Amino acid sequence: MPAPDPRANPLLLGHATAEATILDALRAGRMHHAWLITGPDGVGKATLAFRFARRLLAGLPPTELASTETLALDPANPVFRRVAAGSHADLETIELGVNEKTGRLRSEIVVKDARRIGGFMSLTPAEGGWRVVVIDGAEDMNASAANAILKVLEEPPARALLILCCAAPGRLLPTIRSRCRRLRLDPLDDAAMGALLAAYLPDLSDDERGRLITLAEGSPGRALKLAEAEGLKIAALVDEVLAALPDLPAARAYALADTLLRGETGFSTFMDMLRAGLAAAVREAVRGRADPEQARIAALRSPDAWVEVWQALSRLQDETEWFNLDKRQALVAGLGMLNG
Question: Which parts of the chain are beta strand (E)?
Answer without folding.
Answer: 34-38, 91-94, 131-136, 160-166, 181-184
